[in-house]
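JOB MANIFEST
job_type = single_chain_structure
chain_count = 1
residues = 110
[input]
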Amino acid sequence: MAKMRLAAGDTVVVLAGKDKGKRGKIKLVQRSLGKIEVEGVNVVKRHSKPTAKNTKGGILEKELPMPVSKVMYVCPKCNKPSKVAFAVKGQSRERLCRRCGEPADRPVKA
């Protein structure tokens, strides 16, 4: 599996599937599976019986993981989808927007 350039908290846009064009923040990253969970995207309904945890039961809405290849990073500076590049500065790597060249919001540890 290739290195994942996205992290929790990044804004992404969906490129393919039923939610094509939707934007949302990444909630969870599963690096070993190459999947991510995005807020408000890939939402399904699950019918559940009453249990000790959920005494009412009913229809629950849940976000399922989706492949990272189906989304693209959205630069917070230029507000457009772009690829992510890395630049080495001293002991740390910095994520850059390939479209505008501005650094992403947080540095990455080397």
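[summary]
The domain at 1-74 is CATH 2.30.30.30 (SH3 type barrels.).
The chain is about 0% helix and 45% strand.
exit_status = 0
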